[in-house]
Amino acid sequence: MQERTYIKEVPAHFGEKVKVQGLVRTIRDQKKMLFLVIEDITGAVQVAVHKPSAPEVAAELEHITVGSAVTIIGSAVHNTSVKLGEMEVQPDSVKVECLAQAPLPVDENSGPEARLDWHYLWLRHGKTQLIYKAQTVLEQAMREFWIDNGFIELHSPKIVPEASEGGAELFKIDYFEGNAYLAQSPQFYKQMAMSAGFDKVFEIGPAFRADPSSTRRHASEFTSLDMEISWIDSHEDVMYWEEKLLAHAIGKLKDAYGKEIKEQYGVDIVVPTVPFPRVTLKEAREMLAEIGHVIGHKADLDPEGERLLCKLIKDKHGHDFVFVTDYPAAVRAFYHMRYDDNKTTKSFDLLWKGQEVTTGAQREHRYEILKAQAVEKGVPLEGLHGYLDFFKYGAPPHGGCGIGLARTLVNLFELEKIADVTFAFRNRYRITP
Amino acid sequence: MQERTYIKEVPAHFGEKVKVQGLVRTIRDQKKMLFLVIEDITGAVQVAVHKPSAPEVAAELEHITVGSAVTIIGSAVHNTSVKLGEMEVQPDSVKVECLAQAPLPVDENSGPEARLDWHYLWLRHGKTQLIYKAQTVLEQAMREFWIDNGFIELHSPKIVPEASEGGAELFKIDYFEGNAYLAQSPQFYKQMAMSAGFDKVFEIGPAFRADPSSTRRHASEFTSLDMEISWIDSHEDVMYWEEKLLAHAIGKLKDAYGKEIKEQYGVDIVVPTVPFPRVTLKEAREMLAEIGHVIGHKADLDPEGERLLCKLIKDKHGHDFVFVTDYPAAVRAFYHMRYDDNKTTKSFDLLWKGQEVTTGAQREHRYEILKAQAVEKGVPLEGLHGYLDFFKYGAPPHGGCGIGLARTLVNLFELEKIADVTFAFRNRYRITP
Question: Residue A176 has what DSSP assignment?
Answer without folding.
Answer: T
